[in-house]
Amino acid sequence: MALSINDTAPDFQADTTEGPISFHEWIGDSWAVLFSHPKDFTPVCTTELGYMAKAKPEFDKRGVKIIGLSVDPTGKHEEWAKDIEETQGAAPNYPIIGDSNFEVSKLYGMLPAETSGDPADRTPADNQTVRNVFVVGPDKKVKLILVYPMTTGRNFDEVLRVIDSLQLTAKHKVATPVNWKDGEDVIIAGSVSDDEAKETYPDGWESPKPYIRIVPQPR
């Protein structure tokens, strides 16, 4: 199953390092980031899980819950957490899903439907497609999908930047331009007519072309 933006994020029940969850119920009225890993005790993922532990306050500030996933049982995740704390300076302070039956990985299109067997017999390369980031909104719709190779660490600062944009554009009829960061100018959405825009922006807008209408970020 290939997921696309605006699809409903598949619901599932799973064991995590913080106990069993039902995914949609766990999200509740929040936003959520699900980020996946091919195997425990892999070097790049170790750095990522440590960084996310340190960055969690930034996600909390935005009302975003974070949850990891690895194709290993939760007992191994708990052992791995000790290494993460020792090498990265912070242990995971968010749940990590134990996906030892490959259920969630298959449900989210990261492994083929026919995948089966003992996860301990699989190498990280066997699971290399389990390197995704999914941002899910309070409506349980997929808002962002990022897929990374095993050799490239993920940029979670970029995920935060995108969440800032997603939350802003969900509230206001605007879009954010290239490399936009919170506080910078935005673009009035194409779905908004000039007459409608004048009601919201009575002082007008900068318009280098008729279809580009630049305004300060609404608050």
Features:
219 residues; alpha+beta; 5-stranded mixed sheet; 4-stranded antiparallel sheet; 6 helices; 11 strands
| Largest β sheet strand count, sense and barrel closure | 5 strands, mixed
Query: Which strand order does the major sheet show?
Result: 5-4-3-6-7
**Straight-line N-to-C gap:** 38 Å
* Helix and strand sequence: EEHEHEHEHEEHEEHEE
Percentage beta strand: 15-25%
Helix content: 25-40%
Instruction: Name the overall outline.
Output: elongated
Structural class: alpha+beta
| Rg measurement, Å | 20 Å
- How many DSSP helices? 6
Task: List low-confidence stretches.
Answer: none
Mean pLDDT: 97
**Beta strands, count:** 11
Description:
- The protein is an alpha+beta fold and 219 residues long.
- The protein contains 6 helices and 11 strands.
- A 5-stranded mixed sheet has the order 5-4-3-6-7.
- Strand 6 (132-136) and strand 7 form a beta hairpin.
- The longest helix is centred in the N-terminal third of the chain and has 19 residues, at 43-61.
- It is elongated.
- The model has no long low-confidence stretch (mean pLDDT 97).
